[in-house]
Amino acid sequence: MHDRSRVPENAELPPQSRQITSERKPTGLLSTWYRLTSPPEPAKTAPFQEKELFRRGRTGSQISIVLFFLIFTSIPAAFGSDGKPNPLLIGILVVNLLILCLALLLNRMGQVNLAGVLVVLSVISGPTTYIVTIPGGINTIALPTFSLLVLSLMCAVSFLPPAWIFVVAAINVAFTLFALTSLHSTGELQHLLQTAFPTVATPILLSQIIVSTVAYIWVSGARLAILRADRAEEVAALERRELERQQVEVEQKQQLDTGIQQLIQTHMQVANGNFTARAPLMKDNILWQVAYSLNNLLARLQSYQQITVQQKKNQEALNYLIQAVQHAKSAGEPLQVQRTGTPIDALIIELASLRFGNPAAERPNIPSPSLPRNHRIVNAD
Known about the structure:
Layout: H1 28-37, H2 48-73, H3 75-79, H4 87-108, H5 112-132, H6 150-159, H7 164-182, H8 187-195, H9 197-271, H10 288-331, E1 337-338, H11 345-351, E2 377-378
Antiparallel strand pairs: 1-2
């Protein structure tokens, strides 16, 4: 009968359950950088939240390389091309460098959110401190500094959950409006702010809004794709486990069918009198314990049968000896009997030396109890 639940041994897994080629792991300096600054990579069976935390930590580790590059390229400007160092800029760079190192340490320890907050604050603090402390007030030369606040959005979208980018964008917009409306400005910028404020403020504010919106959409889409891929892997794992379970069920059913047939054959042989038959099942068979108990029972039955056969032979030999003794006694002749191959032979040897009564009595013919022809006849003479 065809078994529909049977899975062929050479059956292939469905396409969605096949493993996608493993991602190429970084090597060299990048691998060393990740080992120092990125959270440990979670297992493939880890929940999505843990994988998402690792993704943000890894992305933050990557963007930190850019931040280090910006800090080190700003060192010449801090010491000045004319040989006069800028103590404020030097202090900002040193503080940012220390905060970035602390944030990467926390990132390595798995505190990705806290690391992200520190990085965002350090990136915001640099441009804002410079703008607030410009001698004489804000001028047109300082306007490009507002664009550096976009870096805080990139850091936020890398380290923190996607929605946090709007919080950072709101902080940047609030500071921009405060700086342009409340801080002192000089020269041409003061005139522009009084006559054409939207012309100055709109590009700065739009850059914050556009970058935050695009980054949020991009990260949310990537997060959704990762979530779908994670669910697809879970479905594939479930399908694999289901196929393995079906395969195990098929193997167990085959073992049951084979084991039952072997047990039936063993019972038939025993029913026909073959007590040497045994159920040939191995320990990996599901019916092995049943076969083991049956084989023990058959071994005991075989032993009992051998004892019964031996007792029957002894009884026949004893009856034979009794008839021979009676005949020798009535005939007055020496006892002449054949050995029986049983423990009764010892008694036959002892009785063979005795003579019995009436020699004139007729000597009956006493057949031996199915003894082999080569057995020697014991004579009393």
